[in-house]
Amino acid sequence: MASVLAFFQNFPIELFIIQTLNGIVTGMILALIASGLTLIFGIMDVVNFAHGELFMLGAYMGVIVLSSTGSFWLALILATLIVGLFGAAMQIVTLRPLIGRDPLTTILATFGVSLILQNYALWQFGPVARKINEPYTGHFNLFYLEYPYYRLVIAGLSAAIIGGFWLFLKYGKYGIWIRATTQDRVMAQAMGIPVPLVHTAAFAIGAGMAAASGVLFGPLVGVNHTMGLDWVLKAFIVVVVGGMGNLGGSIAAAIFISLLESYASIWVNPAQAVIVSFVVLIFTLLFRPTGLFVPTPK
Amino acid sequence: MSQDTVAEPLVTLDGVHTYYGKSHILHGVSLIVGKGEVVGLLGRNGVGKSTTLKTIMGLVQPNQGKVTLEGRPIAGAPAHKLAKLGIGYVPEDRRIFRLLTVMENLRTGLDRPGVSDARKQELLDKVFAYFPVLGERRNQAGGTLSGGEQQMLAIARAMMLEPKIILLDEPTEGLMPRMVSQIHQIIDALHREGVAILLVEQNVPLTLEASQRVYIMEKGVIRHHAASSELKVGDAVIKQYLGV
Hints:
The complex is a heterodimer.
Chain A: H1 2-9, H2 13-44, H3 51-69, H4 72-95, H5 103-125, E1 139-142, E2 145-148, H6 149-171, H7 173-183, H8 185-190, H9 195-221, H10 227-242, H11 247-267, H12 270-273, H13 275-287
Antiparallel strand pairs in A: 1-2
Helix pairs in contact in A: 2-6, 2-9, 2-10, 2-11, 3-4, 3-5, 3-9, 3-10, 4-9, 6-7, 6-9, 7-9, 10-11, 10-13, 11-13
Chain B: E1 9-20, E2 23-34, E3 38-42, H1 49-57, E4 62-69, E5 72-73, H2 79-85, E6 87-90, H3 102-110, H4 117-130, H5 132-136, H6 147-159, E7 165-169, H7 177-192, E8 196-200, H8 204-210, E9 213-218, E10 221-227, H9 236-242
Parallel strand pairs in B: 3-8, 3-9, 6-7, 7-8
Antiparallel strand pairs in B: 1-2, 1-4, 4-5, 9-10
């Protein structure tokens, strides 16, 4: 009892608030990456192992556009569009011919693309990390910390992109096409929906969202050819914990896991805090394999 | 009455062979549906009735034989193109988009290029007049509807395409008698509008009443063909092929 009391007396409330903020910021970025991943999985049952490389490619496109135009916002928009187009081309060339085949073939294909992209980036840009300068350099005082405004911008923009995407899915004509195709590919086709085109478009949207998160997150970590690896692993955990193909679940899971990791790193070092995600993953698979944030299917 | 007397053929199948993987399902099916005609397709379970509809819809591809729509060959065309050319499909298990609302289900067929907002409203008004319950439940998820309501939604959804022909696969399966007579009324109403229907059914009396001609299938081929008025429920040929 005394030790519980001591715990609360010594509870690092300021650190807790800071870590809540950090958790939400990384959670929003993770949600942006995972939304694309879960969209792609939901609509064509493809586990996209190249998703982290699309994130990385987006960050490099951001570096290139930023260095030639000087505008962060232009870099964000162009990187999203270019990688979106690249995603469309990738889907047409590597995945469209494999539709209806064993899922293993698409896993191998996307894994192959991820290796090609990583090594291309290494060859083209070299092993030294590049820097994206943040568009806002201001700070505000949060207890003993100077907290950068830009982190809040990241969270807000990610939320705006995800919100816009959600509205598009809910109300847009093509959003309804995407949802109908996700639920029943064959019937969607019988209703006149051009399913192969919808698949390509969904892949392009997912790729564009990964690229946008790459540009947004670039200023915090530096851009290198392996930056996608950590994120795609976490995004996979999020997609499974949130319920495969469930967009709302993925967003909730991204924030949930990021918050848990942030809180854990109050007491253990950040490398050990990653363990928390895996623990959540294992417990989800053991007790709610359909995902934490979906009602148990009847 | 023979096949050749169909004045204006809309859909024709000529010697169609279809396989699922290695199993040979259709062994040379030939049939004709005329413009605005209601044609019944009878047969026991597993004789290839649903496969015939899927072959017309382009959901399975025939390995051999010809399929035409208004004289144009359509075998091998993808289903979404055929839907645009005027083939509506109401599958056996209804296949409502369960997480989409009633309205969104209808919009999957309505949001086509070249349909004006006024025309969209007309089509919606029409199906809500036929199926008032769909109008009441327009914002409810398709998966929450009862079986009969889902069947109505499946038919209404196909009507959104303004099809020349609707392929109806066992629309009365598992429905209560009141719903069955409602389906019958809808078939009659569509017939009056000039929409052709290829009706696959186990319900022989309904099929004979609602259709002008029937084909009877067995083991992947058409065994018998007659005007519906020439057949009665107790006829030997019905007993022979359907066992009822």
